[in-house]
Amino acid sequence: MTDRLRVGVIGAGRWSASAHLPGFTRSPLCDVVMLCDLDRELGEARARQFGIPEFVTDYEKMLARTDIDVIDVVTRADHQQMVFDVLEAGKHCLVEKPVCHDYRDVWRAQRLAESKGLKTKVGLTFRYAPAVQYMFELQREGFIGQPFVFNGYEQNSQWLDPDNPMDKRIHKTKPVGEAEWGTDLSRAGIHVSSLEGYGAPTIDIGLELVGSELAQVVGILANLVPYRRRTNLDTGRERINIDDADMFIGECANGAIYSMQSSYVTVGNYPGIEARIYGSEGALIARLVDEFGQIQTLRAAKPDAVEFVQLEIPQRFFPPGYRPDDPWSTAFYGNLVHNFLEEIVAGGETNQGNFAQSARVQEIINAVALSHRERRWVDLPLPEDLPYSLRTES
Predict the structure, then answer these.
(1) Rounded to whole angstroms, how far apart are CA atoms 372 and 377?
(2) What is the DSSP pairing of strand 238-239 with strand 227-228?
(3) What's residue 215's pLDDT?
(4) Structure pTM?
(5) In contact, 36 and 8? CB cutoff 8 Å
(6) What is the pLDDT of residue 393?
(7) How far is CA 268 from CA 15, 159, 262, 263, 291, in A?
């Protein structure tokens, strides 16, 4: 393929403006030709901001365009129906996590994409941080040797304040026709949130670093700030039984041990990610936290030099158009977008961070939720006939 790819983006909100649209508009491999959002005023303003020639409020009009190659789904609503619509229309698909709440549905989407010769990509943003891409390269080159231990953390204080609405969207009218999260106040009824939305990218990093599937997990979900505003339009707080902190441990098929903790009510700055891998030949710690003018660091140690030293991240791991003052969202997502476009242009089977990888992550999330609800270790892979209601609340 020699022509520039033509891209349509569904969603014009905060994350689209800070991550997706800068990535696509900076890449030399594509042109963004259409933007879609239900909020016409917001969408038209975003289209002007990023020089996008056409705006619509109905994504079906985007699907009908035969000249659009790639569609990016970046909405706050459930993505599942849009994802299947995009694939049925024959478009390569990038979507924010989760693709679907049940990992079996993610596999269905992956198989559909494969049947149509389409590439997929999921917003597992932090695997594309330059520090993490360099970490992956060092791991592949044998820097850590045999992996022994992975520790993953995602912790920040975005929702520590109970008056920060649970729903990030800025509503002009009260939403109707949407199921309200967290109304079942039982232990089993806790709505999965932090684990799925915030833990997922770090779970993904851990799987890459240990080079193995997880064989079993045991975990707990917690609701540490139980009363909060539901939307920006609500003046009072209500009881919302939602996972705002969680922790699990697991055993990998290759013998490595694995731990993960995520929360958005823990003091710290966004995105608050740290990934640590320890092995027979060395150790690496990547820290993706916006602190003191830095958005990322990578430190390394060896058995004969156990003090961790900071590594310089080579320029080849930074995205097109990168600027030193870029926020982490622009810097990291620029890599994700450009990598996806490169994979499409190159053809072949290379496709990191695709729906298949997202299904691996989602199965672990489903297993940890089941472990919490039934207070037990859960073996992986999950049995195919497990009821949907035991996996994760949709």
Answers:
(1) 9
(2) antiparallel
(3) 98
(4) 0.95
(5) yes
(6) 47
(7) 20, 11, 12, 10, 9
- On average, the pLDDT of the chain sits at 94
Summarised one tens digit per residue, pLDDT across range 336-378 is 999 999 999 999 999 999 999 999 999 999 999 999 999 999 9
Domain 5-124 has CATH 3.40.50.720: yes
Chain centroid to CA 115: 24
In the chain, the amino acid numbered 64 is: A
How far is the C-alpha of 326 from the C-alpha of 330, rounded, in Å? 6
Question: Which two structure tokens, joined as six digits, stand for 389?
Answer: 């209601």
Contacts 24+ apart (CB under 8 A), 49-56: 49/17, 49/21, 50/17, 50/21, 50/22, 50/25, 51/25, 52/9, 52/21
How far apart CA 35 and CA 50 sit, in angstroms, is 10
Per-residue CA distances from 241 to 68, 230, 373, 375 (Å): 41, 11, 13, 18
User: What letter represents residue 122's amino acid?
Assistant: V
pLDDT above 90 as % of the chain: 91
**Locus of tokens 């820290």:** 287
Instruction: Tell me how far CA of residue 294 lies from CA of 283, 323, 330, in angstroms.
Output: 21, 13, 14
pLDDT in tens, 315-327: 999 998 899 999 9
Contacts for 41 with CB less than 8 Å, ≥ 6 apart? none
In the chain, where the domains are located: 5-124, 127-345+354-390
pLDDT tens figures, 65-105: 999 999 999 997 788 999 999 999 999 999 999 999 999 99
Neighbour-count burial of 141, counting CB atoms closer than 10 A to its CB (0-12 exposed, 13-18 middle, 19+ buried): exposed
Please report where in the chains the tokens 């016409």 appear, as a residue: 40
Model confidence pLDDT, tens digit, residues 110-126: 999 999 999 999 999 99
Instruction: Express the helix, strand and coil content of the chain in percent, nearest 5 each.
Output: 30, 25, 45
- In this prediction, residue 388 carries a pLDDT of 60
For domain 127-345+354-390, the CATH superfamily is Dihydrodipicolinate Reductase; domain 2 (3.30.360.10)
